[in-house]
Design a protein that fits this description.
Blueprint (H helix, E strand, L loop, with lengths): L19 H10 L3 H14 L9 H8 L8 H13 L17 H4 L7 H20 L13 H8 L30 H21 L5 H15 L5 H24 L3 H18 L2 H17 L3 H14 L6 H17 L3 H15 L18 H18 L4 H19 L6 H17 L3 H15 L5 H18 L3 H13 L8
Length: 498
């Protein structure tokens, strides 16, 4: 191995001390030095950093206090974050890294139309180029806590007045399109295409069409840089917000967490430029869901409250119900059963008013059906059961809701195949909480079948975690042994195509 193949820092000094923080995370992970080295090498290859070739001696030097070069600190941050289900920053590992420019990777971005367009264009273009080379953005870092929440609060600050429109010369109608002016049918087609992408995501998972969505987003940012009437510009910003949100959601689904967060932030900026506060609240709800996934329920709650406050006088009952359901998830993961139950009731009561709403709901919230309501509320009680020490009481509250969600999603014939798989997994975990491993293995087997029909690392990861729990608690059971073998054969751990 060459002297720089493992990303070593500058020459060792007499003052170098063992890295106690990294050692603590490493010991708790249960990995050997060889396993960590193999994981670093595998992730580096996924990122296109083929020059990296780490071994056990290099890992030992990191533990002894050597600071590796980029992108290894961020690779280690991602690996430990995934291992523990929480955000483990580079600093948490006792490592140093060159801090990237906020405009490139942070979330504290300027809230202006032209800069939002420029950042969307730059980020979508780099995503497409880097993804083609197999490099998935190791320069990005996740934000959490005040560094995330405080910039998002500026969503509610009124925008400065737009500059006066420039006078346009007289142009013959036949040449209007050549100057970038979009017709209404063309705008309608852009919006229809976004709906189609959203349907594909629900049916097939985020891994199949992510690059197509990013490419479409980049095309829309090109249109936003051309002179358009104000009404057209607002509609284009709305399309851009929906596409950026969908690109973020798909990135989240395939495990690209920093990339997902950046798209969500840009989507919120675009929604603000479109003047669409309900859409902005939806973006914030997905940012909240990501924070729950990363073990940051307090941040999730802050984001949901910001979404509720910002859309309180304009969101439909369906949107408000969805926000209450996400509020319940946050409270559940914070271990606050009283507030969780109240939010569950509010979600149910508000959803009952959805059919009485005079205006049609936008397409992006139509996913929040009766099945999705049951699913979210059942997952809240399931999460509460885990936080409360695997409480059978909360598991029993989750079971009928989860069962209803599975039945409803199963009737849709694949329209929401990923949701069906996720709720089969959820039902399997509920049976494990109730000490019913046989029923759990039946549902997990069905979940594996459903997972093979979608491309979603989130689904695969949840199945693996559920099977790991079954092995830990009931590893001697024949059904669990068979399930483990089936998982290894049918859902092997492979890199996701994005």
């Amino acid at each position: 191995m060459s002297g720089n193949s493992g990303g070593g820092a500058s020459s060792a000094s007499a003052e170098k001390r063992p890295n106690e923080l990294l050692t603590s995370w490493f010991v708790r992970s249960g990995w050997s030095k060889g396993e960590l080295a193999r994981q670093v090498n595998r992730r580096a290859r996924q990122l296109g950093a083929n020059h990296i070739s780490t071994d056990t001696s290099r890992v030992r030097r990191w533990l002894d206090g050597e600071n590796p070069r980029e992108p290894i600190p961020r690779i280690l941050s991602e690996l430990f974050s995934e291992r523990f289900g929480v955000v483990v920053s580079v600093e948490d590992l006792g490592l140093r890294t060159t801090r990237p420019a906020p405009s490139a990777t942070g979330v504290d971005l300027p809230w202006t139309g032209p800069q939002t367009v420029a950042l969307l264009s730059e980020f979508s273009r780099s995503d497409l180029m880097l993804a083609r080379r197999g490099f998935l953005g190791s320069s990005l870092a996740l934000s959490a806590g005040p560094s995330l929440i405080e910039p998002m609060q500026r969503w509610l600050v009124p925008s400065p007045p737009s500059p006066l429109p420039r006078p346009e010369p007289d142009v013959a109608p036949s040449s209007a399109r050549a100057r970038g002016r979009l017709s209404k049918p063309e705008l309608d087609l852009l919006e229809t295409t976004t709906v189609m992408f959203r349907q594909w995501d629900a049916q097939c998972g985020g891994g199949l069409r992510r690059k197509a969505v990013v490419g479409q987003l980049h095309e829309v940012t090109d249109l936003l840089q051309e002179p358009q009437p104000e009404a057209t510009t607002k509609r284009l910003f709305k399309v851009a917000a929906e596409l950026a949100e969908l690109a973020g959601w798909m990135s989240y689904d395939v495990g690209l967490q920093p990339t997902a967060q950046k798209y969500f932030v840009l989507a919120l900026h675009a929604a603000k430029e479109a003047g669409d506060r309900p859409l902005g609240s939806y973006v914030l709800s997905n940012m909240s869901r990501q924070m729950i996934h990363l073990g940051r329920p307090e941040d999730a709650l802050e984001l949901i409250h910001l979404a509720q406050y910002g859309s309180r006088d304009c969101a439909s009952p369906r949107v408000q119900s969805m926000l209450y359901a996400m509020e319940a998830r946050a409270y559940a993961n914070m271990g606050q059963p009283g507030r969780c139950k109240r939010a569950v009731r509010m979600a149910e009561d508000t959803f009952a008013e959805a059919d009485e709403w005079d205006e049609p709901d936008p397409d992006w919230i139509r996913f929040f059906s009766e099945a999705e309501l049951y699913a979210e509320n059942s997952h809240s009680f399931r999460d509460l059961a885990y936080v409360a020490g695997r409480s059978p009481t909360y598991a029993s509250l989750a079971e009928p809701l989860m069962q209803r969600a599975v039945e409803l999603f199963g009737r849709e014939g694949g329209e929401h195949q990923r949701s069906y798989a996720l709720n089969l997994i959820g039902m399997a975990t509920v049976h494990l909480l109730q000490r019913e491993p046989e029923q759990s293995t039946v549902l997990a087997t069905e979940a594996i079948k459903a997972a093979k029909k979608v491309r979603s690392e989130r689904v695969n990861t949840r199945i693996r975690k559920t099977v790991d729990t079954a092995v830990r608690d009931f590893g001697e059971l024949a059904e669990v042994v068979a399930l483990t073998e089936r998982l290894a054969a049918e859902l092997p751990e492979t890199a996701q195509a994005v």
